[in-house]
Amino acid sequence: MKYFDFKREPKWLNDEFVRKMILDIDDAKVIQDEFIMNNEGRAITPFHLSGGVKTLICIYEMPDKFWYGSTMGDNCCHNLAEIARKQDIKILLRHFMDIPDDCEDVLYVKGTKVTIEEYEDAYCAYCEVIRERMKEYE
User: Fold this and answer.
1) 23-65 pLDDT, tens per residue?
2) What is the arrangement of strands in the sheet containing 35-37, beginning at the earlier edge strand?
3) Are 46 and 31 in contact (CB under 8 A)?
4) Is it the case that residue 135 has pLDDT exceeding 90?
5) Is residue 36 a contact partner of residue 13, using CB atoms and an 8 Å limit?
């Protein structure tokens, strides 16, 4: 995620929650500031972090922005839900995210609180709209 690469601040990586997300998602440990060790004991830079964890960090540090959430995989759900329990956030998902049941309490679609089943139905409806639009190009 280029936005993170150019806008990040070293202090972000000293936040305990950010460190937890990096460990959870990328199995890497922040030693100090931008000094990170991967699970093989090699030093990496923030540039080497996954797009998912970079997006989570940006959402956490700048919750007032609207974020493209499709850079995150299903392994980001719990951390994303934890952020949403602390802050009002908005993301756009263009892929189906398999949201665990224990994350349903923070699930909204177009500003309306929904169940996981309603989220799945909304995603299916979205796919149908895309499918119809694609027919125009056949």
Assistant:
1) 999 999 999 989 999 999 999 999 999 999 999 999 999 999 9
2) 29-32, 35-37, 43-44
3) no
4) no
5) yes
Specify the pLDDT at position 138: 78
User: Whole-angstrom Cα distance, residue 20 to residue 13?
Assistant: 10
- The residue with tokens 């998912």 is 52
Helix (H, G, I), strand (E, B) or coil at 68: strand
CB neighbours of 104 closer than 8 A, spacing ≥ 6?
115, 116
Q: Under a CB-based contact definition with an 8 Å cutoff, are residues 11 and 18 in contact?
A: no
> What is the spatial distance between Cα 31 and Cα 35, in angstroms, rounded to a whole number?
6
Tokens representing residue 77 in the block: 């759900």
